[in-house]
Amino acid sequence: MAAAKFRKAQRLADNRNKCRDPMTAWPDRLNDHSRLNRHRVNLLALPQTTPLAPLLNCFSGSLSQQRFACNTVLIVLFALLHIADGFITYLGLSFTQVDEVNPLLNYAAGILGLGRAIVLLKLIILGCIAAIFFDRCTIKGRWATVALMLAVVFYGGVVTNNVLLVVGWPA
Questions:
Q1: Burial code of 33-59, b = ≥16 C-beta within 10 A, e = fewer?
Q2: In this predicted model, what pLDDT tens digit does every residue of 46-72 receive, in sequence order?
Q3: What pTM did the predictor assign?
Q4: Are residues 18 and 85 in the same domain?
Q5: Sign of torsion, CA 71 72 77 79?
Q6: Domains identified in the chain, total number
């Protein structure tokens, strides 16, 4: 029984190694794959002369290095926006007549104080963003990149709104 399991495990390991080596892979499967991908049209690919080409190429299926770099930039921007939000929130709640609408922050500020509550909540969020950052190599789909981009745009709007509230615009 143990010998049969060993042979099966050895056979699986051999098959995995064969699949990783393109020289020993099935030639007809490779030909079919290349024939199918030759007719693929990337609607988002622009000529490299346009300024939006690197941004839009992040969504193409074939440019995984560019998408990885784009995801890295988006995650870092998201973290920086959270830091800016914490700073602006503290300034707004400490020095102006602005009320906080986040019930979790209101509750934590009642127990810990405003500064500690903001730091604690932002550290929790930054920990989650750090986990995404260090695991960003597993983000493969273009929809994950779109979701990151939408999150950055949305949170950029939140920070912009907070800045406008703190400076008192429109008065």
A1: eeeeeeeeeeeeebeeeeeeeeebbbb
A2: 455 656 665 555 555 555 788 888 899
A3: 0.64
A4: no
A5: positive
A6: 2
